[in-house]
Specification:
With about 300 residues, this protein is α/β, with parallel strands linked by helices. It has one domain: Ribonuclease Z/Hydroxyacylglutathione hydrolase-like (Metallo-beta-lactamase, Chain A), CATH 3.60.15. The chain is about 35% helix and about 20% strand. The strands form two sheets. A seven-stranded mixed beta sheet has the order 1-2-3-4-5-6-7. The protein has a five-stranded mixed beta sheet with strand order 8-9-10-11-12, covered by helices on one side. Strand 4, helix 2 and strand 5 form a beta-alpha-beta unit. The radius of gyration is 19 Å and the shape is globular.
Length: about 300
């Protein structure tokens, strides 16, 4: 699909970020042995999660690997924290801000794991993953479990949500959930309707994630700050209410132009609007998804 060439989020090319290029990757300890990686002074891609080990037989696992443009920085930070190269990279979905450094890590010995649909989409245009070397080597359809470093990393597919190839990862032993872009914490989510995403599917996915965790779970979203069950529930509540507000206008057979003029998401604007998914764009996504489902 030609549109894959555009899968790097427009954030990466925004004027503000162009003036403030990433020069370092910072890490935050989620729990002992698991680290959140992100740009220290700019956008390096979606949130990345690194599982390290303390023995020579332990495996180093990286969940998502950011933008290809800063692959060297991400690779160096992961290696510094782990003490050696990454063994496995798990992709949560196909977008270039999460798979952009695949080729770099693969060329340094990592095996790339992803859902079947991610590989299918990247085969059409592998540029988002840094070229053909970044194609996932191992794929799964529903779920796979990594038994590494005394932990179980349960990787599971959620259908037609952010895209059609989404995966989340639950570290069962330490109670950490990595959502990929099934959660944009504290901001309107990007639901990629052109690559298999769906508003109702996104809501269902968040409901499924919420049912799997408890009040002590640490949640690493695809974008936004680290959070917990309450944070995920709050983002889900916003999306349910936003959907209902737009659906009410769709039921009145209002056009997209009239829905936008009515500004049904005004109450969420101050808390959730951001440079990529503005209040207007979130309204358009909801309208497109809800009206599309009626014409199938």
């Amino acid at each position: 699909m030609k549109k894959l060439a555009l899968l790097l989020l427009p954030l990466a090319a925004s004027p503000a970020l162009a003036q403030d290029p990433v020069t370092a990757i910072k890490s935050t300890e989620v729990v002992p042995g698991i680290h959140l990686l992100e740009g220290a002074d700019g956008f390096a891609g979606g949130n990345m999660t690194l599982l390290t080990g303390d023995g020579r037989h332990d495996r180093i696992v990286l969940i998502d690997d950011g933008l290809g443009a800063v692959a060297e920085l991400i690779y160096a930070k992961a290696r510094d924290l782990a003490g050696r190269d990454v063994d496995f990279v798990i992709n949560t979905h196909v977008h270039g801000d999460h798979v952009g450094s695949n080729a770099h890590f693969a060329e340094n010995g990592a095996v790339i794991f992803a859902h079947d649909n991610i590989r299918k989409r990247l085969l059409e245009n592998p540029d988002a993953a840094g070229g053909p070397a970044g194609l996932p080597e191992v794929t799964f359809s529903d779920e796979v479990t990594f038994h590494v470093n005394g932990n179980e990393a349960f990787v599971f597919h959620l259908k037609k949500a952010h895209t059609d190839g989404d995966a989340a990862i639950l570290f069962r032993n330490v109670n950490v959930l990595v959502t990929g872009d099934l959660q944009f914490h504290g901001m309107f989510p990007f639901i990629d309707l052109d690559n298999g995403g769906d508003v109702d599917g996104y809501i269902a996915a968040q409901e499924q994630l919420l049912a799997m965790i408890d009040d002590e779970t640490r949640v690493v979203p695809g974008h936004g700050s680290m959070t917990d069950k309450e944070g995920l529930a709050s983002d889900l509540d916003m999306l349910r209410r936003a959907r209902a507000a737009v659906l009410d206008l769709v039921d009145q057979e209002m056009s997209e132009e009239d829905v936008l003029a009515a500004n049904p998401l005004a109450e969420f604007h101050d808390d959730y609007d951001w440079m990529f998914i503005t209040t207007e764009r979130m309204t358009q996504t909801l309208y497109r998804s809800l009206t599309r489902s009626r014409t199938r």
